[in-house]
Design brief:
The structure is a single chain. This protein is α+β, with helices and mostly antiparallel strands and 137 residues long. Helices cover 17% and strands 58% of the residues. The chain has a 4-stranded antiparallel β-sheet, with no helix packed on it. A 3-stranded antiparallel β-sheet has the order 1-2-5, with no helix packed on it. Strand 1 and strand 2 form a beta hairpin. The longest helix is centred in the first third of the chain and has 23 residues. The protein is flat and about 75 Å long.
Length: 137
């Protein structure tokens, strides 16, 4: 009886250690009212040209338009500072588009793109999708 109880406790402890690890691997994909897909790309060419590409696709049945906001920042003394002339707001009426902007960087360093998609439509509140992408020159 003592061995059976010890075995049961060992199994319970083992399950308690395995289950939290499995939960960490679970990924939740958010559902958006008006947005089917967004994609942001930030690339600095060897020449120092920074290229920003933002793409969104909505649903023909409900998406009416979007505001795409983007800016490039440089890491200076552990603080992000806006790069002059590298901030854009694009208004678009429709279901899908791709916009592209570029700027010539004047010095080497670590840069990032800060972007936001605000996608509007009749599917409910506007979807706000934002993020950052870093690259080095």
């Amino acid at each position: 009886m003592k061995k059976l109880l010890t075995l049961a406790l060992a199994i319970i402890m083992l399950c308690g250690m395995v289950l939290p690890v499995l939960a960490v691997e679970t990924e939740i994909t958010p559902y958006y009212n008006n947005t089917a897909r967004t994609k942001a790309r930030f690339q600095i060419e060897t020449t120092g040209e920074a290229v920003v590409t933002l793409t969104f696709s909505g649903y023909a049945s409900c998406t009416t338009g979007a505001t795409l906001t983007s800016k490039v920042q440089k890491l200076v003394s552990n603080s992000w500072q806006d790069v002059s002339g590298a901030s854009w707001i694009d208004e678009y009426e429709g279901v899908r588009t791709t916009i592209q902007h570029s700027i010539q960087l004047t010095s080497t360093g670590t840069y990032r793109l800060v972007y936001e998609f605000e996608v509007r439509g009749t599917g409910g509140d506007a979807d706000i999708i934002s993020g950052t992408i870093e690259d080095t020159y």
